[in-house]
Amino acid sequence: MVGSVDSANQEANASSSNTKVVQTKNVKNGQNKCPKCGSTDISVNVNNGHLRCNFCRYEFALEKMDGLETDIAKLHGRVMTAGVQDIAKDADDIVTLKCSSCGSEVVIDTSEVAQARCHWCRNTLSINEQIPNGSIPDVVLPFTVKKEEAKECIAQFVGKRKFFAHPKFKQEFTTENIMGVYFPYMVVDINAHSHLTGEGEHTARTYTKKEGDHNVTCYDVDVYHVEREFDVVIEGLTIESSADKLNQQATDKTTNIINSIMPFDIENAVKWNANYLKGYSSEKRDTNVEQLQPLIDTQAKDIARFSVNDTLLEYDRGVEWKAEQLLLKGQQWKAAYLPVWLYSYQQVKGEKKLLHYVAVNARTKETMGSVPIHMPKLLGVSFLVELLGVFAMLFVDFDYNWLFLLIGVIYFFLMFGRYRNKNARHRYELETKRNISNLKKIDQYTHRETEVTTSMMLGANNTNIHRKPSISDVSSIEK
Questions:
Q1: Which one in 11, 110, 123, 189 has a CA-CA gap of 20 to 30 Å to 54?
Q2: Are 89 and 477 in contact (CB under 8 A)?
Q3: Between these two residues, 40 and 419, which has the higher pLDDT value?
């Protein structure tokens, strides 16, 4: 197997310096017209994601972005679209367009909008070409969840968490102020080669052994040398390209909530058109490829490792990978705007402020959120639960009745987790589309260990991720 890894390594090194830039073939800046009547008054039909002319009611769908490799297994080197270009620190957000209908000049601040109306003829002018400030992506995924549907999702989520919710929050909560937001993401396709080496353990026998007054469960364990080598294709690996949203460990806002409502159906994204932003707000990208590459490498390695877990089922005690290689033979990057319905509430406690989010995936209705907790009430109820545990410890005949003393603590953390959802995240290692091929396996018996007292393998890591999907050390270009 070593020879094939070396050859893949040489191939990866040779292709890594090969970067191809695909120019996004959008129309020029100016008027996006209805194909039937020529009107520039166009909006989105949320029922199907199509564009609709507000004058003649004609509906039309944009085509998918062309020029990209569709067979990811053939991908070599790094392919980047025009929307992924590095952000220039001195890029001007202000763009001046000349109206093709009346000749007037129209100024657009791209940090806030991608469209403006001509003040003379009232035609809509759009920014369609990439500019080096990160405000224009390559593709956009239209809203298909209506505002009323999102309001219902948010109301149901909060409604199930009213008991311990802070009284002020319950008084002020309303779904009327939710916003539709297009957040910036990078979407990456990867062609890679992986080689994993380690040990796996299989339970050969389970029995009990007397030690003093107690019976101890023991295991006889068969230990194997395990290797997996394979090619892996990863499609649509999606990460935030806003430094603020990447910092999912932030102490002043619950940004992990927005990450947790992924994945999106990226395959249905269409070529960028400013009309899709009409009626919604947007946040521009402020990170570059080189800043995001370490996170992509880490997540790709996790995805590859998880992709062979179904070949390790015989190792019921787990597998410890001791050496791990992932060689990226090819990558394809594109910038995307993805739709989210967002409710936010700022909790103020003295000088501390915490911005809580409840977010709805505007394609799938996946909902997650953080609700401010009334801590005195939660602590009081947890104390009562703890008292019940003390009584149970005194009156219930159980060998491990001391465990009842943990009931109040467990209840507190369960409720806190249900309301705050601090550990909620996108399970990219399982939810990202992947396919493995050319799998080679080694499962070689080495020895047996007897009278092992642990039920699982110490050091097993085949179901672990390398690091949490958060990189607080990434700063924006402006910084």
A1: 110
A2: yes
A3: 419
